[in-house]
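Many introductory courses stop at the sequence. We go one step further.
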Amino acid sequence: MGIFKKFALQFGKPEGMLGGIAGRLMASTNVEKNKWTISLLNIQSSDYVLEIGFGPGIATELVSKVIHDGHYVGIDYSDVMLRQARKRNKKALQEGKVTLKLEEVSNISPSDLKFDTVFSVNSIIFWEDPVNSLKRIRKVMKPKGLIALTVLPYMKGATEETSIKLGSDISQYLKQAGFSTIKTELKEMKPVAAICVLGVNQ
């Protein structure tokens, strides 16, 4: 997996007390990345939206304010993050606008519910088999549905070139999984630029 593997080693599955601290840290630092990613998707009030790796539920909160006739579903494999996201989005959960699940991306299976939009922020770096996971994701997307995968590299020595290389890898994964109209967006952030790769479900 090359640079992906190196990047993933800098992070871990949030667990226990330290995981809780990590979640609160993400909540304070991830707002800009999430807002940017969501802005690229042009989410509509009636859209069905899937987020993979919702973390402490920052994007969950942002999307729930946009959708009214649609629905947001988030999956994450950390029970610590699930608890934090549920607490942060208690009202939206009670209103039935949001569903949060403890689930691995590799376990996503076809269902009657199809999504207009799928996104993740700093999640794909954890996926053991990105191409097969993306193929599974396509099966729960509507035709012409849009996917956005954002990464901001935090590892020591990361530069804009690191972000660009990550974006290139993600683009290849999307192509191999059958997505089309793939494009890349770059945004200057700290400590380094973030990259978002978007694709359309054929």
